[in-house]
Design brief:
Number of domains: 1
CATH architecture: Alpha-Beta Barrel
Order of helices and strands: EHEHEHEEHEEHEHHEHEHHH
CATH superfamily: Divalent-metal-dependent TIM barrel enzymes
Strand content: 5-15%
Number of strands: 10
Shape: globular
Strand order of the largest sheet: 1-2-3-4-6-8-9-10
CATH class: Alpha Beta
Distance between the termini: 17 Å
Helix content: 40-55%
Radius of gyration: 20 Å
Structural class: alpha/beta
Largest sheet: 8 strands, parallel, barrel
CATH topology: TIM Barrel
Length: 378
């Protein structure tokens, strides 16, 4: 195996007692909100997940402000991260937990102002107590992800254009604030076509890329360290091509964090795909993910890869942990298969229109990836 480091983030929000509603809300009682705190989650990552991974994998965590880290808990969380050697790889303000009328894009000036202050507080903690838990390499500093979950609407009016302008102005203001603190964070806009609202601002990767270009043109906000936080499953939800989404990101130097989880429909084993809700399966071994791993290698991408996934409604705690392990190992298996694929031969077949032989190469790569997974897992 080549000498390398592979950075993976585990999400705090994966570890909960259950979703409630239409599925059991207490299938994992040991992870209930009164029994399982963020420091406990970090120790679980260290004790239950890290030992099951290859030595070259480095682990970080992802957390929402203010339900998973806040002013009262940040010091203890930072100490736990330092003690365990787990890094803070991604932070995100959980505005959708508090504001359902647009957040920083809201046409309600009181909501917009409150959401803006909320975002600033999440950045303050990143540069404050949590700073000591960043990766020592500045090029692997955490990503601040802005998810569009609160930037939604359900009524068609001319006010939509004003919402979009509000969003640009507010995010530009937050960017300038972060730059004054040091400008060391990376940024990712996370597109999603729906959830929380029938329609969203920034629904696609292309929307996120265009958004940063408009901020540069209108507000002189540099596009350096600014990109999308693409989630493969979100692209799959609306039937778009996630391979091409990555091509666009690399072409615009707009990828600094990614969520690798999937709807799962394209591996022939589990159900999901376009038109479904956000199922949040882990990484699947398939030709698409091997091709994506090849794009990562060509681009020299070496930053964080996140696993924004959910246990199944029937999983106990051990099964839920196992799914995270399987997701990370599945990506590493796809990456290894991509590293051994003879790209020159593949391109030669494509240039001569011999696509059947190109397909054979990808099919054999999938077989190899499955073998590599078994080798690492067992």
């Amino acid at each position: 195996m080549e000498d390398k480091k592979s950075l993976h983030n585990v999400c705090r929000w994966t570890f909960h007692a259950g979703a409630g509603g239409f599925v059991p809300g207490n299938i994992r009682p040991e992870w209930g909100p009164d029994r399982f705190r963020t420091p406990d989650f970090i120790r679980l990552v260290k004790d239950k997940i890290e030992p099951r991974l290859p030595d070259y994998v480095e682990l970080g965590v992802e957390m929402h402000y203010d339900n998973e880290y806040n002013e009262k808990t940040a010091d203890e969380i930072a100490d736990t991260l330092v003690d365990t050697g787990i890094r803070v790889g991604m932070l995100t303000p959980g505005a959708h937990l508090h504001w359902g009328y647009g957040g920083v894009a809201s046409l309600d000036p009181k909501e917009r102002a409150a959401a803006e202050e909320y975002g600033k507080r999440s950045v303050d903690l990143a540069y404050g107590p949590l700073k000591k838990a960043w990766h020592p390499d500045p090029e692997k500093a955490p990503t601040l992800v802005i998810w569009n979950g609160s930037f939604g609407y359900d009524l068609a009016t001319v006010g939509l254009k004003r919402m979009y302008q509000n969003l640009k102005e507010s995010i530009a203001k937050l960017c300038r604030y972060e730059a004054e603190l040091g400008g060391e964070l990376y940024w990712g806009l996370e597109p999603k076509p729906n959830e929380g609202h029938p329609a969203m601002l920034l629904p696609t990767v292309a929307s996120a890329i265009l958004f940063w270009r408009r901020l540069e043109e209108e507000f002189q906000v540099t596009r350096e360290k600014k990109g999308a936080n693409m989630e493969i499953g979100h692209t799959e939800m609306i039937g778009l091509d996630h391979l091409y989404d990555f091509v666009e990101q690399f072409d615009n130097n707009a990828i600094f964090h990614v969520h690798l989880n999937s709807q799962g429909y394209n591996d022939g084993l589990i159900l999901g795909g376009p038109g479904k809700f956000d199922i949040d399966h882990g990484v699947r071994i398939n030709g698409m993910n091997i091709a994506i791993a090849g794009l990562f290698r060509e681009a020299g991408y070496s930053r964080w890869k996140g696993h924004d996934m959910q246990p199944r409604p029937y999983d106990n705690a051990d099964q839920a942990i196992d799914r995270v392990v399987r997701s990370i190992l599945s990506w590493e298996a796809c990456d290894r298969a991509a590293s051994e694929l003879n790209t020159d031969e593949l391109l030669k077949h494509l240039a001569s229109r011999n696509t059947a032989k190109a397909e054979d190469m990808m099919r054999h790569a999938v077989v190899s990836a499955n073998s590599y997974f078994d080798e690492m897992y067992h």
